[in-house]
Amino acid sequence: MAVFQAALLNEIEKLYRKKKVLVAILLSLAVIVIGQLVIVGVRSGFGLRGTGSVEFPMLVLSVVVNTILPLFTALVTIDSFSGEFSQNSMRITLTRPISRFKIYTAKITSIVLFILGALLLLLVFSMLAGFIFNANSASFDSLGRTVFSYLVSILPMTVLALGIVLLANIFRSGIAVFFISILIFLAFKVLGLLFSQYSSLFLTTQLDWYNLFLVNSFPLAKIARQFLIMLGSGIMLFSAGFYIFDKKEF
Amino acid sequence: MEKVIEIINLTKTYGNGRGIYDLNLDIYKGDIFGFLGPNGAGKTTAMKIMTGLIRPENGDVKILGHSVVDEYEKAMAKVGCLIEIAESYQFLSAFENLKQIARYYPDVDHKRIDEVLELTGMYKFKYEKTKKFSLGMKQRLGLAAAVLSRPKVVILDEPLNGLDVEGMIDIRKMILSLAEKEQTTFFISSHLIHDVELTCNRIGVIYNGRILNVENTDAILKNYATLENYFVSEVERNGRVSSSAS
Fold first, then answer.
1. Model-level pTM?
2. Binary contact (A99, B72; C-beta < 8 A)
3. What phi and psi, each to the nearest 5 degrees, are found at residue A218?
4. pLDDT 10s digits, A141-178
5. Which of A109, A222, B53, B150 has the greatest number of C-beta atoms within 10 Å?
6. Rounded CA Rg of chain A
7. Contacts of B55 in chain A (CB under 8 A)
8. Contact residues, chain A to chain B, C-beta under 8 Å
């Protein structure tokens, strides 16, 4: 366990020392600022209400889970795997007294922590912006639902990251992984629209699964089904990625 | 004598037909073993298997009694290594790079990091990012990383790559003093045959993926004027080097 902690600490250190994370944070904040400016502009220019203080974070979430968050997850994941494969810096960790399984798990854990950090950051700042600019209609219940929606979004994002990890282990070039990830993402989006009856099988549709928790009737069966589909695909992607990582020659 | 590294029937072949075949080798405590062979003979392949970077098709390597295939963490616990080019995270300083490695070993503290930086002549570049390091500086940092955990076994693939004369002398002194004072066992491959002659006390020659001979340096130098002559004659017997080369 001690070596896993060491590996995780190392991964987190590498993550925050790279400029990509800083850019991710700044862009996330930019989304909030621009979003808020647009809403303020609409309200004062056209006299429309826009969103309330609690609705704004939900609006931000619906935008980021389909745009910048998958994008940054892809960048961080590709950097953690393909980046280290191509620079051979993976050898630094591989030749230490730590098994490949622990390295692989530590890398994925650090990516999940990155996603969690990004979601929490977005939550805090979008709520702040919401309260400052639209200080009305806040209730304790809706606040709880907002926080919950952000937290449950970690699950589909993790599955997405695991998919990219698998691709990063199959293809050598980081750029190839990035483009293939985007193509698959778009293809799943289109397929989800075309074959809506099967949409829950396409992982991109799951990105919006937090909406299920906002429905008053609370569709437990549907939530359980979606959760199990994500869990199943997550386990499969994790195992397939590790299988290739374990066999890789450096 | 205590066996530190046991290479048992090690086989690994590549698509191009190169690789290593049925390699057997024992390295004993306190040895400074020189692993010699022409380009493509299988030196790096053997060393990569020894450090777990690639898996063998057949056979095993045991380090201090633990198999690198089945008990990797235990086998590598007391091993330091440098394989091919010394790699580092370019966005981190020399100190931070070593700190990353130090986390895997509970006994290594900041004082030890300073110690190895001093030992390899890198202390003055402690806080500099490795991005702008020369090949020699990277190599010194790689050597510092290899000995950081006070390992009992050190595996070095071409450790003198890119080093200046002063660097070569420093590293040679470091190897000899660690072997003498701490009974560290070294397994070194190098093209610089003169340096191997000065540093190593046992020599193994690998050719076309097979071990040709293992001999003490002293015994070799009784029969041959230099290690180079011995190497050429060994390889020549297997039809690789023309007699004019000697």
1. 0.89
2. yes
3. 50, 85
4. 777 888 888 999 999 999 999 999 999 999 988 899 99
5. B53
6. 19
7. 247, 249
8. 2-3, 6-7, 9-10, 13-14, 17-18, 87-89, 91-92, 94-100, 247, 249-250
pLDDT in tens, B170-189: 888 888 988 888 889 999 99
Kindly tell me the burial class for residue B124, based on how many C-beta atoms sit within 10 Å of its own C-beta (0-12, 13-18, 19 or more): exposed
For the stretch B203-241, pLDDT in tens is 998 888 888 888 888 888 888 888 888 888 888 887 655
Query: How sure is the predictor about B136, in pLDDT bands with cuts at 50, 70 and 90?
Result: confident
The span from the CA of A95 to the CA of B46, in Å, is 14
Is this complex scored with an ipTM above 0.90? no
The total of other beta-carbon atoms located within 10 Å of residue B182's CB is: 13
Q: Among residues A125, A157, A121, which one has the least CA distance to residue A56?
A: A125
* Interatomic CA distance for residues B210 and B213, integer angstroms: 9
Inter-axis angle of helices A100-133 and A140-152, to 10 degrees? 150
Nearest-Cα distance to chain A for B142, in Å, is 9
- Which 3 state secondary structure label does DSSP give A78? helix
Kindly give, in sequence order, each residue whose CB lies less than 8 Å from that of residue B64, ignoring residues fewer than 6 positions away.
B4, B75, B78, B152, B153
Distance CA A64, CA A198 (A): 24
Which has the closest alpha carbon to A27: A63, A53, A1?
A: A63
Q: Annotate A193-240 with three-state secondary structure.
A: HHCHHHHHHCHHHHHHHHHHHCCCCCCHHHHHHHHHHHHHHHHHHHHH
What is the mean predicted confidence (pLDDT) over B109-132?
Answer: 91
Residue A142 vs residues A138, B15, B19: alpha-carbon distances, Å: 7, 62, 65
Structural domain spans, chain A? 2-247
Residue B223 CA to residue A69 CA, distance in Å, equals: 69
DSSP character at residue B224: S
Do residues B223 and B230 lie in contact, with contact meaning Cβ atoms separated by under 8 Å?
yes
